[in-house]
Design goal:
Order of helices and strands: HEEEEEEEEEEEEEEEHEE
CATH class: Mainly Beta
Shape: globular
Structural class: alpha+beta
Strand content: 35-45%
Distance between the termini: 86 Å
CATH architecture: Sandwich
Radius of gyration: 23 Å
Number of strands: 17
CATH topology: Jelly Rolls
Largest sheet: 15 strands, mixed
Number of domains: 1
Helix content: 10-25%
Oligomer: single chain
Length: about 280
C-alpha cells in the first residue's frame, strides 16, 4: 500500500471511531428538563412527598413534579402551578399523585402567557377528594390525563373539576373539552360539553361501569366555579423559565441540559374568596 493510501486509511478509521462519540454529544444537547410545580397558596395543613422526603406544604416553594404526592388535611386547601402553566386547586382531605409529568425543552418563540412553553405529557391520579384544574392553551403534541379509581379523563382544556370517593367519580366541565372513559372497555369514551358533568360508578362483578351525563346542578356550579377560579388565579402568581447547565453539574452551563426554575410574580396572595362551604359539592 502506498504512503498516501495508508494515510487515507488511517484518516477514515479515525473518523469512524470519533463518529459515535460525536453523535452521543449531539444527543446530549437535547436532554429534557425535569418538570416542576410551584405552591401558590396553602391554607391549613398539607404535605408534599417528594422522593423519600416528606415536606410541610409551604407557600412559594417549588418541587420536582414526577412521582410527587400532594395531600391536604381536613379544613385545608392548596393551589399549585405546574411548569407548563396549568393551575390546580387541591381541596380539603384530598390526595393527588403525579404519576408522570414530562416536559420538552422550552421553546421561547412559542411561549405566550396563556400557552405552554413546550410539549408536555402528564398523568395525574386523584386518589380521593376534589381538584379544580385550569389550563392555558395546550400546544400540539401535549397530552394531559387525570384519573381516579373509576375513570380516566383526557383533558384538552380549559376549566375542569374532578371529585372522587370510594362510591363514584364526578367530572365537571365548566369550559373547554374533555373525554371521559370508565374502563378499558369504554373505547370511544364520552365527550362532555361545557356545563355538563359525568358521574361514573363502578359496575357489579363482571359488569361495566355506568356513566351518566347531565347538566351541572345550579347549586353546585357556584362552589365549583370558585374553586376552579382559585386554580386560574394561581397561574398568575408565577412564571417559569429555564437555565442551561452542564450535563455533569459542574462549570458553566453549555446548553447540554435545561433546568426549570420558578419565578414568583409580584402578587403574593392568591385571591380565593372561598365563602361557600365545601359541603356544597355533593359527596364531600
Amino acid at each position: 500500500m502506498s504512503p498516501v493510501a495508508k494515510l487515507l486509511a488511517l484518516g477514515l478509521a479515525s473518523a469512524c471511531l470519533m463518529a459515535p462519540a460525536f453523535g452521543q454529544r449531539q444527543l446530549g444537547r437535547r436532554t429534557t428538563p425535569t418538570a416542576k410545580f410551584f405552591v401558590a397558596e396553602v391554607k391549613g395543613e398539607s404535605q408534599i412527598t417528594s422522593g423519600e422526603r416528606v415536606h410541610e406544604g409551604r407557600q412559594a416553594s417549588a418541587y420536582d413534579a414526577p412521582g410527587t404526592v400532594i395531600e391536604t388535611k381536613a379544613d385545608s386547601h392548596s393551589a399549585v402551578v405546574y411548569s407548563n402553566g396549568t393551575g390546580m386547586f387541591v381541596d380539603s382531605d384530598t390526595r393527588v399523585e403525579i404519576e408522570r409529568f414530562s416536559q420538552e425543552p422550552f421553546v421561547p418563540s412559542q411561549y405566550t402567557p396563556d400557552a405552554e412553553p413546550s410539549i408536555t405529557q402528564s398523568n395525574i391520579f386523584v386518589s380521593r377528594g376534589f381538584v379544580g384544574v385550569c389550563t392555558g392553551q395546550l400546544v400540539s403534541g401535549s397530552t394531559m390525563s387525570y384519573s381516579t379509581a373509576h375513570a380516566a379523563v383526557n383533558v384538552r382544556g380549559r376549566k375542569i373539576g374532578i371529585r372522587t370517593s370510594p362510591e363514584e367519580t364526578v367530572i365537571y366541565l365548566l369550559e373547554g373539552d374533555v373525554t371521559v372513559r370508565s374502563d378499558a372497555r369504554d373505547f370511544n369514551g364520552h365527550v362532555l360539553r361545557p356545563g355538563e358533568q359525568a358521574v361514573v360508578r363502578p359496575g357489579a362483578a363482571g359488569q361495566p361501569a355506568s356513566v351518566t351525563i347531565s347538566p351541572i346542578p345550579s347549586d353546585v356550579m357556584a362552589s365549583l366555579d370558585e374553586r376552579v377560579t382559585v386554580a386560574c388565579n394561581a397561574r398568575r402568581t408565577v412564571s417559569f423559565e429555564t437555565i442551561d447547565r452542564a450535563a455533569d453539574g459542574g462549570g458553566e452551563g453549555d446548553g447540554e441540559s435545561q433546568e426549570i426554575v420558578a419565578r414568583p410574580t409580584v402578587e403574593a396572595e392568591v385571591p380565593t374568596n372561598l365563602v361557600v362551604s365545601p359541603d356544597r359539592l355533593p359527596g364531600t
